[in-house]
Write a structure and sequence with these properties.
There is one protein chain. By secondary structure, the chain is an alpha/beta fold. Helix content is 55%, strand content 14%. The strands form 2 sheets. Strands 3-2-1-4-5-6 form a 6-stranded parallel β-sheet. α8 crosses α12 and α12 packs antiparallel against α13. The longest helix is centred in the middle third of the chain and has 30 residues. The chain starts with a strand and ends in a 5-residue tail after the last helix.
Length: 294
């Protein structure tokens, strides 16, 4: 099968870069509006076609990429895709979703002759815009080779993780580690602030030794420059991803006591009004809890 027309559902922080790079590589792109018109209008100006509905997008695309918040949103759009999509349609879910939901949708789609696979992402909107996202792919290798030309438009790392559902498992493991690192880095930065430690000195020591992490390198920019742009990922979405992870471990079952503690850190941050702020603002949240002004 040759893919000529790609549908994109979820043109937001990540979806805009994905769509832009798909267009740049010569594919036709169908998009559907949601709440924010700006990224939709930007892609239309680059040559994308705006479908009037998810149903129209499903009827006119060879492949659909979903980039929405989580499993409830994926399941909702899949109702229409399964009802209107043609036999042979490929649906790649780039969202962070629950593996059990992914498997259920895969089986429902398979019964209709539609292919549903999981292709979650790593990295940030900056890499989405530059076409350098990392992707995990769950599904058979033949399907990966079929969609690779499309995935390669916006990613420079594509890892086949195994059967459908395994990519979302790996994604949740990745997010557990990275979001835990962010929470630990926030606590360390808060303690340093309370102690009056020079933040540049702290950065140089940590990033030059065994405690270095990508997340610390991003979050230290908050006390240094009041800059949270190095990780444009909302705290409410981080909280959701951690709950998906603990749900997954409970079903296995495997104890995940550390994940529960990290998850509750993000829950508390959201209840304190930080849900719609980027993850680096965990630093501000923890400083607020510690009574540190700034």
């Amino acid at each position: 099968m040759t893919i000529k027309t790609v549908g994109l559902i979820g043109v937001g922080l990540m979806g805009h870069g994905i769509g832009k790079n798909i267009l740049a590589k010569g594919f036709k792109l169908n998009v559907v509006a949601h709440r924010n018109r700006a990224p939709i209008d930007s892609l239309i100006s680059l040559g994308a076609h705006e479908a009037k509905s998810v149903a129209e997008l499903a009827e006119t695309s060879d492949m659909i990429i979903i980039v929405v918040t989580g499993s409830p949103q994926v399941e909702e759009v899949m109702k229409t895709i399964l009802a209107k999509g043609k036999k042979g349609l490929i649906v790649a879910d780039c969202s962070t979703a629950e593996p059990h939901s992914t498997l259920k949708l895969h089986m429902e789609a398979k019964a209709l002759g539609i292919h549903f696979i999981d292709t979650p992402m790593t990295r940030t909107p900056k890499e989405a815009e530059s076409g350098k996202l990392g992707l995990m792919v769950g599904g058979d290798k033949e399907m990966l080779e079929t969609i690779r030309p499309v995935l390669s438009c916006f990613s420079d790392l594509i890892v086949h993780t195994g059967a459908v559902g395994t990519a979302h498992q790996v994604k949740l493991l990745n997010n557990f580690l990275s979001l835990s690192h962010a929470a630990i880095a926030s606590e360390a930065i808060t303690v340093a602030a309370k102690a009056g430690i020079n933040m540049e000195a702290l950065r140089d020591v940590i990033m030059g030794g065994g405690g270095a992490s990508v997340m610390f390198g991003r979050l230290i920019n908050v006390p240094l420059h009041d800059d949270d742009s190095h990780l444009k990922f909302y705290i409410r979405n981080a909280r959701k991803d951690l709950r998906y992870y603990t749900n997954m471990t409970e079903v296995m079952p495997v104890a995940s006591p550390l994940a529960e503690q990290v998850h509750q850190t993000y829950v508390l941050a959201e209840t304190m009004g930080y849900g719609d702020r980027f993850v680096p603002r965990l630093v501000n949240f923890m400083m607020q809890m510690a009574g540190i002004k700034g």
